[in-house]
Amino acid sequence: MAHSPAAAPGAQEPGCPIRVEHDRRRRQFTVRLNGCHDRAVLLYEYVGKRIVDLQHTEVPDAYRGRGIAKHLAKAALDFVVEEDLRAHLTCWYIQKYVKENPLPQYLERLQP
């Protein structure tokens, strides 16, 4: 499921939108950077029938501080909401994102 692009100048090249792609088979969300050479990634695993563990977010050093990880976190949490799943947050960045964006639809799906 691809999410619609959101404007974030400088993420790839000035004025290029960030496009998050979801690969369900590989259980990851990705953003291609600089064409397709580099990429940012958020990895998850199913740890129960309807429970996902959002495990790790990684953005290459050269692209950090541009809001790319926020787009990955939002896409992953929106996936949890859309699929009516529960989420365990192993990734420290996703934990931080939820604290900064305490939307009820996210909070009610968190596993302790």
TrEMBL record:
GO terms for molecular function: transferase activity. Residues 21-111 form the N-acetyltransferase domain. Pfam families: Acetyltransf_CG. Coiled coil: none annotated. Gene3D superfamilies: 3.40.630.30. It comes from the Eukaryota. Keywords: Transferase. InterPro entries: Acyl_CoA_acyltransferase, Gcn5-rel_NAT, GNAT_YJDJ. Belongs to the NATD1 family. PANTHER family: PROTEIN NATD1 (PTHR31435). This is Protein NATD1.
